[in-house]
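Continuing the series of single-chain predictions for the mutant panel. This is the parent chain; the variants come on the following pages.
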Amino acid sequence: MKRICLLMVAGLMLAACRPEQRPADVLAPEAMASLLADAYMLEGFYAVETGSRHDTMLPEVLAAYDDILARHHTTREAVELSLEYYSTHPDQYKPVQDSVLALLDRAAAPADTLPATALSDIDLEVVEKQ
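Parent structure:
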């Protein structure tokens, strides 16, 4: 009887130590980081361009968020579910936030520090017109 109890306790301890798997309907860390970086850039753009908080121009912000969601092939519900999941799993959210910061740093880098391949996406006609 003592062995059975010991085996049960050992089994429970092993099961408890196993990292929890991310549910399939939660955005993967890479997708979540990319989406959050776009959302942060959107909010920054509106704050700089208008000098006001984003809630004072709610229709424009919502439309822009819809564009971001479409570009990332996801829905508001999936993002809300993912935010809820990651808020209760900080160990899994930390790498997401680190990736967001890296993406934002890369987006803010001066043009002369970017690799040549990153510059190939710039439309030179638009740059010349400005």
